[in-house]
Design a protein that fits this description.
Bound molecules: phosphoenolpyruvate, magnesium ion
CATH topology of the largest domain: TIM Barrel
CATH class of the largest domain: Alpha Beta
Number of domains: 4
Strand content: 5-15%
Number of helices: 23
Helix content: 40-55%
Structural class: alpha/beta
Radius of gyration: 26 Å
Distance between the termini: 41 Å
Length: about 575
């Protein structure tokens, strides 16, 4: 039976294909006692699962080295070594033989013993190996229980992934050739999985509440990432109309592609910068190919995720330098310091469980508290600044006090580098994100001490409207065009300009069709967005006049609701193009 489900349009694009429903599985088993004649078969079962684990790790290692980097790939090499270690695997075998118990129980006993041993060691490196052991033991346990590890199970054709939720690290593992789109029960437009989907050009609809209940694997789906519509088992006419839309979408992209080497200039000659948001050094290549004039936000936390220990200064230095090398010709690369917390978890940092993680111990708050962690990143950033036009940006600054604290730590790191004769750019620009209303209100004071601002609307909207960016039930309140949000944005841009500083925006709003004319009229200097939105935005920009948009925003600022503002933009600007 045909069914229409409405969710949040999280990543644009259309997908037509079969569903693969990912079922959450629990890792439970019972301890069983074996008869003497069952022991040999049990050891053989263990060896088979070990073999499977090693080949899975090989596949993950290859993918990580291709898509993310050699450093990440090394983690899986270490996991393979554990699986081939006679001390570890041999101990599980002996346990099965001596205790006459099933492999799962033997594995648990041996793994707990080794983990405990590593955790109690003085040496930090050895202590970190405990996390590797835990991780690889879990993978082996899944294989013993016959639980599929991959997100896509045995799917052989490209599918539409249907699941309760996707973590940012799950999303990082998705392969565009295997996943045509994904749809989830929870999540919003600015959840990090949605943001990554846009960068990866995978259409996505989130916040569908119970899509995993309504769809079975193999059902035919049409996903519209522009409207948030998901059609389940639609009729042939609907499929045909979406095939036509898909064709038109590709044609439109071909038109935009002609602007790849063109500057971002309005029809009355006003120049702005259209730059990209990236999550990994690898994304920088995509941004470059997509016509980005630089990087406006490198979310460095993704370097820290999907692994079980902190990246070293050297690894970070290489990553930052690599981005600067890809974004060459002195194009700007704004690198944000660690912004962990909220929906971005880092298990090995052992963060406390909080009632309101978006309002909690996150981002700059962690860095100002765990100064060594912060200094390692700042050293890597400063060293990389000798190799390109790198700018440092702090996330989640709430007050001038925090900006000063962060800058004081940065000065210490700079001084240390000077003392040791290590090169860095003495003129490096250091800016901050404006994503907390308190910072937007005192932007005039902050602008005196920050070299630039980048407005993080994903968080600024949630804090201004008191609406959780992950909660689909109240997503109607999450409105970039709410007059309160627009006034704050205008205030920030004006404050920057008064001090001769530039203002950018790296929240998702910067890449939205309706927002661009308004932000242009406000005088925004830099628009940072997911790479696939750049050419579409440049196409729109070339059709607009700065002077006309300035006049339009004067009227827009007097309108009372988001709805009126959107209607104004549609009727007076977009429909007239
Ligand atoms: C923002 O809040 O707008 C932003 C860009 O940061 P993030 O989405 O990573 O929280
Ligand atoms: Mg943010």
């Amino acid at each position: 039976m045909s069914l229409l489900c409405k969710g949040i349009a999280a990543a644009q694009g259309i997908a037509i294909g079969h569903a693969f429903v990912k079922v959450e599985q629990t890792l439970s088993y019972t301890r069983t006692t074996l008869e003497a004649d069952q022991v040999a078969a049990e050891v053989a079962r263990l060896k088979e699962a070990v073999g499977k684990t090693i080949s899975q790790l090989e596949a993950i290692k290859q993918k990580a080295s291709k898509d993310i980097g050699e450093a990440e790939a090394k983690i899986f090499e270490a996991h393979q070594l554990i699986m081939s270690d006679p001390e570890f695997i041999g101990a599980i075998e002996s346990n099965i033989e001596s205790e006459k118990i099933n492999s799962e129980s033997a594995l648990e006993g041996v793994s707990n013993m080794f983990v405990g041993m590593f955790e109690s060691m003085e040496d930090e490196y050895m202590r970190e190996r405990a996390a590797d052991l835990r991780d690889v033991s879990k993978r082996l346990l899944k294989n013993l229980l016959g639980i599929e590890d991959s997100l896509l199970g045995d799917a052989t054709e490209a599918v539409i992934l249907v699941c309760h939720d996707l973590t940012p690290s799950d999303t990082a593992q998705l392969d565009k050739d295997q996943v045509k789109a994904f749809v989830t029960n929870i999540g919003g437009r600015t959840s990090h999985s949605a943001i990554m989907a846009r960068t990866m050009e995978i259409p996505a609809v989130t916040g569908l509440s119970d899509i995993t209940e309504k769809v079975k694997s193999g059902d035919m789906l049409v996903v519209d990432g522009e409207t948030g519509d998901v059609f389940v088992n639609p009729d042939q006419d609907l499929i045909a109309s979406y095939e036509q839309k898909l064709k038109e979408f590709h044609e439109q992209k071909a038109t935009w592609a002609k602007l790849i080497n063109e500057p971002s200039v309005t029809k009355d000659g006003h120049h702005v910068e259209l730059v990209a948001n990236i999550g990994t050094p690898h994304d920088a290549e995509g941004a470059d190919k997509a016509g980005a004039e630089g990087i406006g936000l490198f979310r460095t936390e993704f370097l820290y995720m999907g692994r079980d220990n902190f990246p070293t200064e050297e690894e970070q230095f290489e990553a930052y330098k690599a981005v600067a090398a890809t974004i060459d010709n002195n194009r700007p690369v704004v690198i944000r310091t660690l912004d962990i917390g909220g929906d971005k978890e880092l298990p090995y940092l052992d963060l406390p469980h909080e009632m309101n993680p978006f309002l909690g111990y996150r981002a700059i708050r962690i860095c100002l508290d765990q100064v060594d962690l912060f200094k390692t990143q700042l050293r890597a950033l400063l060293r990389a600044s000798a190799f390109g036009n790198i700018k440092i940006m702090y996330p989640m600054i709430a007050s001038l006090v925090e900006l000063r604290q962060a800058n004081a730590i940065l000065e210490e790191v700079k001084e240390d580098l000077r003392q040791n004769g290590i090169a860095f750019n003495e003129e490096i620009e250091v800016g901050m994100m404006i994503e907390i209303p308190a910072a937007a209100v005192v932007a005039d004071q902050l602008a005196k001490e920050a070299d630039f601002f980048s407005i993080g609307t994903n968080d600024l909207i949630q804090y201004t409207m008191a609406v959780d960016r992950m909660n689909q039930q109240i997503s109607y309140l999450y409105d970039p065009f709410n007059p309160a949000v627009l006034r704050l944005i205008k205030n920030v841009i004006d404050a920057a300009h008064k001090e001769g500083k530039w203002a950018g925006m790296c929240g998702e709003m910067a890449g939205e069709e309706y927002a661009l004319p308004v932000l242009l009229g406000f005088g925004l200097d830099e628009f940072s967005m997911s790479a696939p939105s750049i050419l579409r935005s440049r196409h729109l920009l070339t059709q607009l006049s700065m002077e006309e948009m300035k006049a339009a925003t004067n009227e827009i600022l007097n309108l009372a609701t988001g709805e009126e503002i959107r209607a104004y933009i549609k009727e007076n600007i977009l429909d007239k193009l």
